[in-house]
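--- STAGE predict ---
source: upstream dedup step, 1 unique chain passed
mode: sequence only
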Amino acid sequence: MTDFRTLKDQAETLRRDKQFEQALAAFDELLNLYPDQATERERWGKAFCLRALGRQREALDLCREVYRTHPEFVPNRNLYGWCVYDLEIKPLREGEPADIKTFYRAAEAITQLTLQENYSPYERTVFEVLRYLKYRQTYPADEVLAWCDKLDPDKLATEARKYTGRDGQERVEASPLEQWYGQRTKALEHLRRWEELIVVCNEALDRLTGFHYSDEIWFRRRIASAKAELGDTQAAIGDLKALVRLKPEWFIQADLARLLHENGEDEAALDYALDAALGPGELAYKWELFALMGDLLAAQGRPQEAGQHYRLASALRAERGWREDSDLAQQLRDLPLVPDQPAAAMARELEGTWRALKFTDQERGTGEIERTDPGKRSGFIRASDGRSIFFRFRNFASPRDRLLIGTKVSFFLQPSFDKTKNRESNEAVDVREIT
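--- STAGE serialize ---
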């Protein structure tokens, strides 16, 4: 018969070598032959193998037994937490039906059972709860902050995490620290805690480097929003103008249009609103932008175009099943009835109006595509006057298979900012093949 020490070493070696079937057999033999000599370490080893073999329920039962007799044994506490995570937390992430009350109880149990440290499910559990809360129909900002408070940000990794999705594609996830700041600042914004929001956003910008897909724009945008809410509209406008030069996203342009309108600068407001309307982005989320454009056009004495924008905003809300907006309903009440039309068709009809308003004083330039960089999704046009003009693929309005070197194109020019040369410049927009 193999002695206790030899059998114990054999079982541990097999476990460390990830030969879990053989290790489990060795631990079983050890516990059967030497029940009085076996310690919590050997019972934990058996539970470890059970979990590794997908037998989480059995592993959980054994962890509970060990916990009752040795509650301070940290490896078992962590394994106990991982078994609870596997059975009650992980299924929600994978989209399987789950009892939400059980999910919360399990998450609370894990955060009481374990610490935020290596080999512990603590951090991952908190982030799973935050992920669930983020997509609740009614955003629970107070709960989000409470769960953020369970994490020590100084212990969170600052490196982005690479992983392979279910489709086999490699993806990159923001670092835990960036995720934590993102969740915390979103909650502060919803709670209108503006001074604190500015402090935490600036802290994020100071501490984080190598943002995930330029996510720093969210922190800078939230700072501008907070300044506007605190009454410093000019500072907010300045911040957004600087941000939109670096990242011309439609929602930043829409923010600028709204603040400029509130500041009585309607001409500039309409200019940014038109950029936002013409830029890429999910149509439904632009409904407030279109309602604002209705206000701006009405103020210019263009009631017909204003009405078209109010109708578009209303149609987008109706198609999403969102309840009626009272301000929008008031504007629609005074408009003549017209046949119902899908929102996407309405937007397509308005594109010509947007371009006419945006480029009313500019003739289209011409040239040919000089070079492209698919990695950056941008390229350059050699204009007829010899200039090399930057453009983004998203502003190529013709079929994408025509985005080829040598393709003859026409375009409009729009002010931009050259980040490489750190200076004002122009870029080509509404780029179209000349046929």
